[in-house]
Amino acid sequence: MTQNIDRDLQRFKHIVKGKVRSNLRKYVTHGEMLGRKGREVVSIPVPNIDIPHFRHGKKGSGGAGQGEGEVGQSLGPGEPEPGTGEAGSEPGRHVREVEVSLEELAMMLGEELELPNIVPKGAETLVAEKDRYNSVSQVGPDSLRHFKRTFKQALKRQIATGQYNPDRPIVIPTRDDTVYKSWTTVSEPRANAVIIYVMDVSGSMGDEQKEIVRTAAFWIDTWLSSQYRGLQKRYVVHDAAAHEVDEDTFFRIRESGGTRISSAYERIQRIIETDYPVADWNIYVFQFSDGDNWGDDNNACLSILKNHILPVSNLFCYGQVESPYGSGEYLREVRRIAEIFDNVTTSLIEDKNGIYGCIKDFLGTGK
Hints:
Helices cover 34% and strands 22% of the residues. By secondary structure, the chain is α/β, with parallel strands linked by helices.
């Protein structure tokens, strides 16, 4: 019976994950999971799922294919379209919240977008000490008691000594039966990565544009976290001047005034030179803007990019978010550099539906 339940549960989980995977484009586009994100899992709303099963009819009602009828004739009333029909007292279909780990979500994203795995640099230069619970011991604290193995040990003892009664299956572990989880400390190579997010927060970037950036950043974080054990994030905002802020401020701040992108690049250059040695860190820069920039600033931007940022970055991504107030001219400047540097990629995000293509553009390079 227990094996049947476990098999059905695994089958149900497989169906749920298939449902999530089939609707992944919708989740990427609309960001439905952002408010449901925990530390390790995401709660995803999916339609309620019924596992198919046989249902027997009344005795004597005939066998399969018996009785009068024509080919193609309906066997019963169909279901009305959602939103049609009269009011009633019966409950409707419910939406089920299922939990999917971020690791599983990254796997789905990689399969759906056919993303190549990243080969990091610095994998052999950084070593992390990690405790792995891979053995058991006869001594230890109660918090590490291995309940399953302790129960099995007690059950085997009672069966061997003839104390086990199948009619009254009571298993009482003794002190000698108790085992505890134990660990060994292992040293393993670790590749570290840093993501530097850059966003224009001038008056032309509205709430809709920032929501697009926030959704794209969630999926970028999810994928890169599956590729690196050590992932840090830094956030830079700018109008005519640049500031480093925390994550919450990054997505909420709104300022006015002109736009000078070179101020953000100068801040990025200082962050990298101060905190992230190029030999040990995999550096990713994701910039989002509506394409406006102060007229004479483009030359300064290109100079900093070519001489200081691109030579040390795994990947530099520029996402231009369409805005009714932005000129969009800066995209042409970055595309000119992309013809020279193979670690530069660009994406034009017209609206929320463009997030899916943006993620493919940015992460499909495998860098």
